Amino acid sequence: ENHQNREQLLAGKKVLISAGPTREKVDPVRFFTNRSSGKMGYALAEVAAELGAEVTLVSGPVSEQVNHPRIKRIDVLTAEEMYEAMHANYANQDIVIKAAAVADYRPKLVHDQKVKKQDGNLQIEMERTKDILKSLGEMKTNQFLVGFAAETNNPMDYGKKKLLQKHLDAIVINDVSAEGAGFEGDTNMVTYLNEAMQQDEVSLASKREVATRILEFIDRDMKDE
Ligand code: CTP
Ligand code: CA
């Protein structure tokens, strides 16, 4: 009967998730990206769908695949495209989770032709991308908004700051320097921190199990509001 309850946990809820890295072009053959595999975001999407939610998954370029019929996947490449897709789908969502690793900078100039090498050093000027999560926080109506924080040092301090500065309802703090946590692997270990500054530790487990715990905390905190 526990199984039955879990299947119904998010029944009828609309959940918007972003996952994976973004890709910022330099020229037709080169781009900047990061180590995100998308696995945590995809695990959240899959488990949310299994728990009854109707999921929209905005995905950067990853090798992960979705099978669940209640997941609608929207593929994007750049931070700008992710911004557009998240905002286009933001209204009427119950839960929004930003698990994506968005590029903070992109090349200021994108070359139409391949850049040829020359003697000496190359400098590429980078400009800031939009902070998608912060903009979603500023426009929040009824969505329960959850961010991720990927940190290598002082994870709790930086995580708390992001929760406040981006107007989040909760943040999943990921110490990516910890053994078994972070980018490419199939496991993770996180701290879930909500607006009331309540901390829940999720010890090392598969990304699917971590996703289940995160969704249970979210469900609990939505009921408390
Ligand atoms: N995020 C975003 N748009 C950006 C940068 C980050 O939506 N341009 C989101 C991420 O998806 C994540 C959260 O903000 O949910 C925190 O991302 P993180 O990289 O840890 O923090 P930043 O605010 O970018 O700060 P910094 O990289 O300097 O630690
Ligand atoms: Ca960042």
UniProtKB/TrEMBL annotation:
One Gene Ontology cellular component annotation held by this UniProt entry: phosphopantothenoylcysteine decarboxylase complex
GO annotation terms (biological process): coenzyme A biosynthetic process; pantothenate catabolic process
Transmembrane residue ranges: none
Reactions that this protein is recorded to catalyse: (R)-4'-phosphopantothenate + L-cysteine + CTP = N-[(R)-4-phosphopantothenoyl]-L-cysteine + CMP + diphosphate + H(+); N-[(R)-4-phosphopantothenoyl]-L-cysteine + H(+) = (R)-4'-phosphopantetheine + CO2
UniProt region (Phosphopantothenate--cysteine ligase), positions on chain: 15-225
Pathway listed: Cofactor biosynthesis; coenzyme A biosynthesis; CoA from (R)-pantothenate: step 2/5; Cofactor biosynthesis; coenzyme A biosynthesis; CoA from (R)-pantothenate: step 3/5
Cofactor: FMN; Mg(2+)
Domain of life (superkingdom): Bacteria
Keywords, in A-Z order: Decarboxylase, Flavoprotein, FMN, Ligase, Lyase, Magnesium, Metal-binding, Multifunctional enzyme
Known EC number: 4.1.1.36, 6.3.2.5
Cofactor comment text: Binds 1 FMN per subunit.
Domain DNA/pantothenate metabolism flavoprotein C-terminal intervals: 10-219
Molecular function GO labels: FMN binding; metal ion binding; phosphopantothenate--cysteine ligase activity; phosphopantothenoylcysteine decarboxylase activity
Binding site for CTP: 104, 114, 148, 162, 166
Family as reported in the entry's similarity comment: In the C-terminal section; belongs to the PPC synthetase family. In the N-terminal section; belongs to the HFCD (homo-oligomeric flavin containing Cys decarboxylase) superfamily.
Described function: Catalyzes two sequential steps in the biosynthesis of coenzyme A. In the first step cysteine is conjugated to 4'-phosphopantothenate to form 4-phosphopantothenoylcysteine. In the second step the latter compound is decarboxylated to form 4'-phosphopantotheine.
Protein's name in the database: Coenzyme A biosynthesis bifunctional protein CoaBC
Residues of the full protein shown: 176 to 400 of 400
